[in-house]
Inverse folding.
């Protein structure tokens, strides 16, 4: 650089060594922010290649025009990044970290930053964009490590920015180092991959009222509803076999993050009517999209093969749909959840006839026809 200062001047090179990544937009290289080891450099290069390949496959070439280096680019990966809402990044402190992150079942990405850090400032718009894109799936937070030193010391933060992942589910206080790229596309892709690895098998929830239906359907892209035979027609072993099959399907399609529900036949008549199941033909299944207020009905056999084919079509966005009745989720009755036992017929009380006086029949008289 002492001999070729003109080469580094356009890229604001002030310290040594400085590593720049020239992606699709050659006029706007990004800073390499990873560790200075061979494995980290290789991993970063591969991440950049993956990002570039995804953008080209999606038809966004990014280009290299001089006008393309404005703040709307992904910082060297080519395409436009989604504008982020700063409010989607949770502000973390020593005081709220335990409650918001460690006691949460959500997957978290936490950035430990310093206000004076140039790389942190460069990351900020990408972090906000990723937080907006991942809203409802993964939570992103930011902690000023120069102020809130308890948590930054606890997790061994020595450089900025440092990003840590806290896996979904019950947490033991441990964290995993983020080793992906620093564009919004890289962050989203990395987070969704980790979410898929860590996501637990969804619970198959019985519809016992409006809340259970709302939680499963409004908080997910789709909710899968199975209506099982009445307990008198299908006792506990039979029902548990159906629930086991549903659990296996939920595990297989857990990356879709659908909601899963079951109901007993005729226990929720308005719900059945809304999805066209209608009082007979149990077991039955429907998939509900509460955002579009539409549903799709299983018309194949209620079996592993039939349900799998139905769900596979849904996962590809295929299949015929119909509008929900009244274009809203139906009202559900509040009922007691199944106790896991066999059904019992109601026993009628014996009628005591000892006090009933009966008239004597005259056997000599005959009815005349």
């Amino acid at each position: 650089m002492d001999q070729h200062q003109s080469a580094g001047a356009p890229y604001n090179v002030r310290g040594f060594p400085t590593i720049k990544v020239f992606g699709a937009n050659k006029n706007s290289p990004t800073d390499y922010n990873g560790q200075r080891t061979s494995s980290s450099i290789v991993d970063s290069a591969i991440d950049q290649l993956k990002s570039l390949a995804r953008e080209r496959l999606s038809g966004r070439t990014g280009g290299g025009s001089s006008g393309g280096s404005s703040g709307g680019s992904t910082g060297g990966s080519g395409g436009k990044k989604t504008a982020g809402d700063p409010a989607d990044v949770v502000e973390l402190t020593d005081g709220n970290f335990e409650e918001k992150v460690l006691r949460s079942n959500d997957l978290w990405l936490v950035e430990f930053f310093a206000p004076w850090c140039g790389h942190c400032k460069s990351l900020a718009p990408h972090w906000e964009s990723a937080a907006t894109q991942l809203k409802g799936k993964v939570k992103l937070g930011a902690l000023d490590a120069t102020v809130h030193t308890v948590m930054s010391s606890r997790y061994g933060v020595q450089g900025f920015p440092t990003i840590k992942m806290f896996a979904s589910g019950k947490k033991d206080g441990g964290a995993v180092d983020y080793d992906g790229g620093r564009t919004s596309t890289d962050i989203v892709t990395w987070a969704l991959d980790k979410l898929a690895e860590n996501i637990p098998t969804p619970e198959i929830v019985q519809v016992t009222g409006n809340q259970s239906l709302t939680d499963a359907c409004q908080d997910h892209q789709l909710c899968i509803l199975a209506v099982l035979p009445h307990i008198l027609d299908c006792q506990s072993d039979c029902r548990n076999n159906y629930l086991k099959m549903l659990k296996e399907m939920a595990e297989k399609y857990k990356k879709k993050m659908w909601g899963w529900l079951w109901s007993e036949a005729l226990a929720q008549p308005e719900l059945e009517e809304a999805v066209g199941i209608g009082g007979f033909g149990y077991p039955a299944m429907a998939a509900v999209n509460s955002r579009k207020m539409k549903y799709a009905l299983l018309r194949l056999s209620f079996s592993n093969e039939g349900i799998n084919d139905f769900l596979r079509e849904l996962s590809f966005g295929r299949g015929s749909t119909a509008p929900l009745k009244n274009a809203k989720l139906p009202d559900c009755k509040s009922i007691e959840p199944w106790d896991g036992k066999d059904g019992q017929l109601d026993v009628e009380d014996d009628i005591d006839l000892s006090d009933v006086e009966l008239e004597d029949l005259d056997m000599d008289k005959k009815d005349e026809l």
User: Anything to note?
Assistant: Residues 58-79 have pLDDT under 50 and may be disordered. The CA atoms of residues 204 and 243 lie 8 Å apart. The first helix runs from residue 5 to 8. The two ends are 126 Å apart (CA to CA).
